[in-house]
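Reply to dn_fold:

You asked what the input looked like. This is it:
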Amino acid sequence: MKINIKRINDDFLMEATNDTNNTLLMDGSESIGGQHKGMRPMQLLLVSIGGCSAIDIISILKKQRQDIQDFQVEVESDSIKVEDHSVYKDIEVKFLIQGTVDLDKAKRAAELSFTKYCSVSKALEYGSNVSYSVYVNGQLA
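and this is what came back:
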């Protein structure tokens, strides 16, 4: 998987594009000069965990022939400062499902998502090794 991110103004507004040309906008917080024209990167982390688990749960419930008429996810967290950066200590994900859906099946689907299937929650749980390189005018720094 490859994501490309391009700065589109003189401040912090950026557009991210995936390998199938879907896009989203990111911006910095107002406190550093952002203009609320896109989601902040830390917000996208919450979007990712909510979206990943939602896809799992919907998939599981559809296979069980549950009739989902409305599906919403609320994700809440407060970031805490650690050294020079912020992290999410506790993330609460709430699924609001309407329809003819068995309560036990919905609960089990959520459990399976977070214990087995959701790659985003697993990445947060176990951590990921992150590497980086920097190129300036095409030259590796």
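The chain has a mean pLDDT of 89.
Hope that clears it up.
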